[in-house]
Amino acid sequence: MRAFPRPRIVVSKCLGFDSCRWNGAMIPDEFVGTLRRFVEFTAVCPELEIGLGVPRNPVRVVDAKGSLRLVQQGTERDVTEDMMRYADGLLSGLQPVDGFILKSRSPSCGIKDTRIYPGMEKVAAMRTSAGIFGAEVLRRFPSLAIEDEGRLINDRIRDHFLKRVFAFARFRELEPTARIRDLVQFQSENKLLLLAYSQKELRAMGHIAANKEGRPIEEVRDEYAKHLHKAMSRMPKDAANVNVLMHMLGFVSDGLSGDEKAFFLDTVQKYRLERLPLSVPLSLIRSWAIRFDQKYLLPQSFLEPYPDELNPVVGRGVARDLRP
Length: 324
Ligand code: SF4
What we know:
The chain is α/β, with parallel strands linked by helices. The protein folds into 2 domains: about 10-150, no CATH class; about 155-324, no CATH class. It has helices at about 30-35, 45-50, 80-90, 130-140, 155-175, 180-190, 190-195, 200-210, 215-230, 240-250, 260-270, 280-290, 315-320, and strands at about 10, 40-45, 60-65, 65-70, 100, 115, 125-130, 145-150. It has a 4-stranded parallel β-sheet, sandwiched between helices. Strands 4-3-6-7 form a 4-stranded mixed β-sheet, with no helix packed on it. The protein starts with 7 loop residues before the first strand and ends in a 5-residue tail after the last helix. The site of iron/sulfur cluster has 12 residues, from helix 2.
């Protein structure tokens, strides 16, 4: 069995940790609940932290001539500066983390679908954007995995998020004392995962880890980490995943019957047509890697990038829109 690191994730407290919403409610989220066994959560409620109690009048984001302000309804209190001060204190002093899961649509925590109003009157929102705290998180940590619980319902977005936080956590656990040979091993075990994400970055990371110039290890680690985050910034395309699957088949195909190979190619085609999730052809390769004790494939994180328990239920993921 593969050992997994525990990613460190900052999460909005109202997603199952505390009844801290403006009306005293909590919004337990099934996925966040499942994740609790596998990650180290730091739960925060920015509105509580700036002294707005529970219950409280709700706040909204107002566009005041191009400047976004966080204003409490009823009291008309502008709490933007309080929120920015809190965000600065929290985010500057944060231990290294791998990602964030923030509450969708919240004027404080939202990351893209917060309603922006033209004023405090009863008017329709002008547009959507990030909330005040969420925008600061996005600005300070552009390379981390940052999502809201609403987007994580989508299987592909969730898979991408999980692949990133577990890869970042694997590297973070290595980082403080990593030697060149640790980087080379990390590169080797994550090679196929990175190949699916970005061939260009994979090549660059290979050069950095080889350290032919003999640079100080701290410099090498920093540069390698930057490229790891960059490599995994965009979701891999289906075609790239198919290339990796076909590449993996090459390592086990000598021991397979014609029917087994045909069955595998059929599942790959169904994945290409979005009739099966990636986990189906991957499970086949994994079982053959175990059967043939395939020493190159077995340690590859692409085979099992995060614990199986976090995989969406097959069928549920296929039925809904798979596109982010
Ligand atoms: S969305 Fe953010 S600020 Fe609002 S209750 Fe949840 S954690 Fe607190």
